[in-house]
Every structure is written in C-alpha cells, then in structure tokens.
Design goal:
The protein is an alpha/beta fold and about 450 residues long. About 40% of the residues lie in helices and about 15% in strands. The strands form six sheets. Strands 1-4-5-6-8-13-15 form a seven-stranded parallel β-sheet. The chain has a three-stranded mixed β-sheet with strand order 7-9-10, covered by helices on one side. A two-stranded antiparallel ribbon has the order 2-3. Helix 3 packs parallel to helix 5, helix 7 packs parallel to helix 9 and helix 8 runs antiparallel to helix 9. The chain is globular and about 60 Å long.
Length: about 450
C-alpha cells in the first residue's frame, strides 16, 4: 500500500494533490470516499501489523508522505510529528517480524509545489525531492533496509498529462508529459545519489508498472507497435535506472518528433552513476496492440505508434475490465532476465480487485474470495516456472494486505487479504488471508 492510500490525512501539515482533488471535487471519487480517513493506518498500524503477521505477511511496502515528513519543502527540514509517526510505525513492523520496503513517492506531489512551480515539470521540484529523500534517509535509513524512489512513475505521466485520469487531469499534453517523464527519472537518480552519499547499508530501487505489449500478429508493423509501447511505457524507466541510459530507439523517435526532453549536460553522468540496486515490478494485466491505421498530426501522444485491440480469447475481471493473463508474468520475468541480467527484482504488486465483495460473505461472516486465491495460484505457478529458468526474482507482494483506498476509485473494488469495514474500520481476515498464511508458511503452493 502507500501512505496516501492507508494513513488518512490526520496530523499532516500539508495537502498533496490527491487531498486537494478530493477536497475541491468530491464528486470525482466513488461514493464520495476520499483520503480523509482511508484505512486509518495512521491510528491502527499496530493492529494492522499484527493482522498481517497472522496472514503470513513477512514484508510490507508503504510510503513516506512528503507532505507528512517535511516541514519546509525548500530546505528539507523535517516535521517532528511526522518523524515520530514513521518511527513508531517502523518499530511496530519490526516487533511483528515484518520487513518494510519504504517508498518515497506514490502519486502524492505536495499541492503547494504543484501550484507554485508546476510539479514535476519543474527541475527545482526535482531538486526539492532530493532534499526530501535525504531527510527520509537520515531519519530512517538505519532502521529500514529496502527503499524505493517512486511507485509507478508512468502513471504520473499517463494519468496527469496524456490521458487525464489523474490530477491534474490533462489530456494530449505529450510534450509536457515527456518532460515530466525525464524529470521523474532524474529525481529518482538524485535520490539514489543521496542514499549512497550517506553510506547506508541497505538497498534502493524503483517500482515500475509493467503491462507487457502483445502484438496482434507477427507482421512487422504490429511488432513495431508492441516494441514502441514497451519502450515508452516501462523500458524508459527501467533502462535508465538499471543501465544508466534511455532506450536509443525511443530517444531517436522523440527527437525526430520534436518532443525530446530538455536536459543539462551533466545529467548523463548523474544518471549513469546512480543506478538502482533492485527493481519492483507491478503486474496486473497485459496490453494488446496493433499498428495504427494512421499517425495523427495534431499534437503528440505515444499512441500515434500503436493502437489497442480486443483479443477475442481473453479472460476478463469484470469489476475492472482488466484481462487476466497469468502467463504474462512469466514473460515479464524472462524479459527482466534478458534485458537486465544483473539486477534482482521482485513482484511489488499483483492482485485482483472485485466490486461488492459482500456478496461473497459466507455464513460465518467471512469473505469467501476463492477468485482471489485462484488468481494468485495461477500467477505464482508461472512465476515459479520463470525462477526455475533463471529469473532473479526474490519476492512477491500481493496487492494488497488490507483493503485500501484506490485514488478516485476509492473502495469501489476491494483488493485485500484482510477486509476493512468502512463503517467502523473493523478488520476481518478473508479466506485468501488464511490461504496466504499457509502458502507463506510452506514457502510454496500445495500440490
């Protein structure tokens, strides 16, 4: 989960853009539910870690909220109450034998930095993020061994600038989106630089959502469409973070189209010198693409080079309209082995969201989510095969340990091993939580 999705905004000094979006346009959020309370992890983290332990969860990812930890964004000075909260949370995780993976940014740009400087369009904000990262490392770097800089940075580009489904909800701003993509990569490298300067003994990485592209045919045009989709949507972040350089083919296209980012001469060396130790891969579904009928000449968007198509044989999660294709996790693992053979990685998110889970409540009052168990079993079987074939995958995080707030979709779909009742915040283990505990204890599926 992440801080914005679990903590609620209690005790925060500043708003992030999701807080502001909810405060000003509650009608955009499913059932009007926003980040004011969410799962109330801020007050219930001790109980939640006990529940996670009961479910066999050994490792948990959350994020440090920029708007909670920092008192002065320009200097990076910490907020004493924010520091105290995160220290207490870290201690509670340790007490329950849970290894934390702390992420620095999960779609939660401070509103004041967005309004004052333009958010990730500003290089100054990139530098302020590095100050925030340094403060987080200084405060908690000796207590947390695994850090990540960003979760799903492409969502910031896609949702905020290209297709309008995340704040600020812009559409068709391809040139600005490409600059944001570059600044996110630069910010990640600067955070890695700060981590290494402090001589900390842990590891630092980046989490990327991978929706691997499958082409409609083996024809050259369809294959090229799939390649460009992968270059832009996930290899852009992984190549530069692991190899120290962007895909040459992507750079060539962006330069030819006149939308290549603005950079400083010294950036190249900074990106090369500050590569990540490990990667997190969020996988939910694949992407099916074909060659576009024509290239639009008005504005620039990446989908000028590919078009989506509907695969007739697909299985679909009707609650989300996402294709269920477990085999793709194997293919992603093999791609990681081929493209980045020296970089270990883990599945940082994988799960299924289902609407109105109350309809699956059994006579004992427990959510009987057999569909979630089946989903995980299929994906774990394919991942196991990939590991047997040499994939350097060291872990698997389900999404999610508890039902959590999902941005403007709120609690429309539930993802957790543990149910959260919004009326009283009561926690109840689902059948999948009991199943997961058995899998965790035996470190494998039952045959």
């Amino acid at each position: 989960m992440s801080g914005p999705q679990s903590e609620g905004w209690a005790g925060k000094r500043y708003e992030n853009i999701m807080d502001t979006w909810y405060r000003t346009r509650r009608e955009d959020f499913f059932d009007g539910v926003g980040p004011d309370v969410t799962s109330d992890f801020f007050h219930r983290f001790e109980e939640d870690f006990r529940r996670m332990k009961e479910a066999g969860v050994h490792s948990f990812r959350t994020s440090v909220q920029w708007t909670r930890l920092i008192a002065d964004f320009e200097t990076g000075k910490p907020d004493a109450q924010g520091v105290a909260f995160y220290r207490s949370m870290i201690e509670a995780a340790k007490k329950n034998g849970i290894e934390l993976v702390l992420n620095l940014h999960h779609f939660d740009m401070p509103t004041i930095l967005f309004e004052r400087y333009g958010g990730w369009e500003s290089r100054h904000v990139v530098e302020l993020f590095a100050k925030f990262a340094k403060t987080a490392f200084e405060c908690f770097g000796n207590d947390v061994r695994f850090w990540t800089t960003f979760n799903e940075p492409m969502v910031i580009v896609d949702g905020g600038y290209l297709y309008g489904y995340h704040y600020p909800g812009l559409k068709g701003e391809g040139r600005r989106g490409v600059q944001v993509l570059y600044h996110l990569c630069l910010a990640s490298a600067m955070a890695v630089e700060q981590y290494r300067k402090l001589g900390l003994k842990g590891k630092i990485g980046l989490i990327v959502n991978v929706t691997p592209a499958y082409s409609k045919s083996n024809g050259e045009a369809d294959q090229n469409a799939a390649r460009f989709f992968d270059w832009f949507h996930w290899r852009s972040f992984l190549d530069v973070s692991i190899l120290g350089r962007f895909p040459e083919e992507l750079v060539d296209v962006l330069r030819r189209d006149g939308v290549l980012w603005n950079a400083k001469e010294e950036d190249e060396a900074l990106l090369m010198a500050n590569r990540i130790d490990f990667a997190g891969i969020n996988y939910y579904h694949p992407t099916r693409v074909q060659a576009p009928d024509s290239i639009t000449e008005t504005g620039w968007l990446p989908d000028r080079y590919y078009a989506h198509y509907d695969w007739p044989q697909k299985r679909v999660n009707a609650s989300k309209n996402w294709e269920i294709f477990p085999r793709a996790l194997y293919d992603v693992a093999m791609a990681m082995k081929t493209l980045y053979p020296d970089t270990p990685w883990f599945v940082s998110e994988c799960g299924i969201g289902v609407h109105d889970e109350e309809r699956f409540r059994d006579p004992e009052g427990v959510i009987d989510d057999a569909y979630r168990i089946a989903f995980f079993e299929e994906h774990l079987e394919w991942l196991h095969q990939a590991i047997q074939e040499g994939a350097d995958c060291f872990g698997f995080h389900v999404w999610a340990a508890l039902d959590c707030w999902s941005w403007n979709n709120a609690y429309r779909n539930r993802y957790g091993l543990i149910e959260v009742d919004l009326s009283d915040q009561r926690r109840t283990m689902k059948r999948s939580g009991t199943w997961y505990r058995k899998v965790s204890m035996r470190n494998g599926l039952e045959k």
